[in-house]
């Protein structure tokens, strides 16, 4: 019996509880009116809550304890099962490293589920039987406990249903709690991100000094796979990564996105007729809706070879096929709609009287834009551009597919550079050992990325907000 | 004139501008030219952005539409029980289809295909290495064929397929055109004999990943995307809407509420790859959930989608006028009843629009899923929420990395499928917004 079925069964029980509770509620309504011996109008107040609330009350008290038990069990079950399976394997055949243990258990699980027919490691065959048997036993046990608690909760709830019972108030308190817990998920997520990044980064910084990480200029983590290898210490100077990220995301991409996005926004807000605007704006938004993996494919397959040909034509014989320029230009195009909509908002927030005043003085629309609207909207536009930068440096797929892995410290746009996000993906795909600096360095990079985007966002939002208030 | 000027306390007295002078005319002309140029620049920027989009779509469609077609070669196959290693009498006697299928799964169809392709003579290498699957499907559909001979269309190797679609420059020297003279001769000969046909590629839409391009399909990834998004919707919709209702209708104004609001706004701007790190560190390492599973992918994407849903739901709830709430409260509804029976139903179009847009974004997301291992090579269609699976954008990424030339058209075709789903979802969102949104 799998956990999914157990969960479904718990919800099924709750549904049964709801039906019983509601039926009870209906009976209460029907009988209390008769007992009072009055007309139908008087019956309404005779029972405090509507039958649905009686039902929900029973269902909630049946579901809540069962769900707690099952959720708790589902979180610890894999660990418990792994321990009992490994304990059943003779000590000589027991896998030693954590990596071996993981692959051993994967095979055991595959065998137990019937997906693997012939295992690589023969010791997994008896272990898989132990696994299946233990899993069934424990799941039965957890199911039984959950069902008992559900029944107890349900019966207790049922016993409390009387005409005076305030079922609606109880249910509403539970709903309020549910809503509050839902909003706590946001905090938990933030906390989870911060704690996991900091925790893994601290482990990384125990092996590599933060000074070397933040200011070193040599990055070659790939050599640090095994301890007995030559050059196993690896080099974790992340400056080339930071430079590559800034070069692609904050320089090349912005050189494309700022002029195009700004001019698009100016045209759309100042010149375009409503009918034209109605057509052009969705096209811009479509550009924002294209998945980044599509941009990456396009950058790698279509743009990068052209950029390379162009570099060869310029006389660079060893031009790389993975250039910063190709990734940066495509990323810039991806950011255009973002810059455009931020600039759009900023321009629209400038009071119409300023524009009208300028036009009435005889300035042409372009003079109005350049001399009045842009200076007035500048803080908003700058804030928007900062947000765009933060989005560009966090963007992953385009650079993973088009920018390459070579950590070069270069200002040649035709050269290959690598970025923080590219390295995170490269470090964390494939086999992982969670005690090697190679894997952990990805979390340190993630922490830096998170910190920088957070600061950019907070600052940019503050700028935008302050400026909006100034005109409101 | 002079008395008028002196009476109005003007600091500098000057002649009225003569707009008809050539100097002024030139100046006006220059300003108007600048105006036209500026206007043109704006239009050009928009045009450039639009033409980039058109170029991108054009390239994808040009490379990808042939991915929905495949080339097949006709061979005469005798379903020889001896080659298959089957006992014809026993198969005929087996009434149970499941037992018959089990027998066919053991049979040597690859050997049968090899024997059948020998009749193509020198060109036996054009048949795909997975072509025997077509024979097995034929026989499973009609067991009476055992021992009979029939003409079967089987898929060809990717190179021949690409030749037939004209994807190679045949004028180029052999070394740079990516296809051998031998393959070209085989293709030309078979084409001349009329043994090749091009048809709708059912394999692409019905199978999962494969190492060879002609057998690779999108169905496994599509199913993986569906499972992942189901988890995402199941988690992010109730939690997101609940959080928005709490913040908008019930939350007391205190420090905790501020912290919640700030963290939601910040989560909306956190790079998606950070959510992948979170999923890896928390779901996989702390909770020990299975790698590559739609469950973990869905949860990770749910956390990413949550702020989008919360923010759009709050906007939708805010736009419901207070008079509705006051009226409901006035006739005795409890605050919870006001929210769930009046405010939320009225805000639902806005909530659904925001949810669909958030889910569409999750569907196109790749980076966080790479980190939790959904780049695994999965040849089976996913069986459940905890089995290894891949999703459409990751499939695109994996194929784009593959050196085999046939994967270029598969990648583009997969992108076309992905984009069509995204466009459909966004159209539904726009339809909902236009049809049901009310201005109060």
Automatic annotation (TrEMBL), chain B:
InterPro entries: DUF3333, MetI-like, MetI-like_sf, Phosphate_PstA. PROSITE patterns: ABC_TM1. One of its GO terms (cellular component) is plasma membrane. Keywords: Cell membrane, Membrane, Transmembrane, Transmembrane helix, Transport. It is found in: Cell inner membrane; Cell membrane. It holds the Pfam family DUF3333. It is a multi-pass membrane protein. One of its GO terms (biological process) is phosphate ion transmembrane transport. Belongs to the binding-protein-dependent transport system permease family. CysTW subfamily. PANTHER family: PHOSPHATE TRANSPORT SYSTEM PERMEASE PROTEIN PSTA (PTHR43470:SF5), PHOSPHATE TRANSPORT SYSTEM PERMEASE PROTEIN PSTA-RELATED (PTHR43470). This is Phosphate transport system permease protein PstA. The lineage of its organism: Bacteria, Pseudomonadati, Pseudomonadota, Alphaproteobacteria, Sphingomonadales.
